[in-house]
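ugh ok fine here u go
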Amino acid sequence: MSDEFVTNVRTEPNGDRSGERDLFDPERLRLSQNFVDLVGVRKILTTVRVSKPHRQMFVRVHPDPKYRLDTLVLELKEERETYLVDLALGSELPGELVAVTLFTAITRQNDVFLWPARLPDPDGRQNRWSESARQAAKLAMSQWVRMAANMSLGAYEISVATGDLPEPQWPEKNFQELLQIAFYDRFIRQEDERENYLSRLLKDSSEPVVVTDDEHRLLAANLAALTLFGISQKNLNNFSIDAFLRHDQVHCFEREGPPFMQGPERLGECQIRPLNGKPKVVAFSFQANFLLVAKFRDAASIQ
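structure:
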């Protein structure tokens, strides 16, 4: 709107303003039902929740097998959060992970979500809750379905819409993109679990714990290790573990290819020569740059 137009409106208070009143007619300014089409708005998918369908919502499941995945998840009941888990962690978190099928589903409002439905046990057993949920997901591939818990039945009660409902409008994104949106900050990698395990050890272990690089330089150590070596946290990185070993024992801590904290565990004994104090013979466990030491006995007589 130009300044000239504003000035003309304000300086003609006694003139005929019927034309101006038409400009402010509410019916002329009221948005129509298709106002989204008028302004050219396009919905961007930024959130994909992971949960079973709400009991009052009719949903559909994508019929294409490319839009579902059998995998492992970690379910935190209290937080109501589901985490996708690196399959390599299956043997490291026994009893904590759940095998599910992640179905791509959608509501009548075109809200896309991932529906985790439990898979049968390795021996084929399945409780009635899981069985009825998978039945509902299968029906939802061709019909609008609603699923609600029936406690007296001990299973989900499945309802199918009888009206002539339109087909769902599936998003253009592929299944990998949906997974990335849903789990971008809820994916537990093998590396994450090892880092968490290492952090707990460094913080809580009463035994010396050390992390080195490929040249044996000290990268991290807990208080027990610093005490054993006779060094401080401040000058930790100035030393390699070789400085505290006999020359013929350095080979015990050579890394032979596997990634950090992977590969075979190497057990043995060696002599630690601290900067101050008496030498000690210690038992150790070494696994690709990760060293756990158990103080064994004084070695004052060993030169």
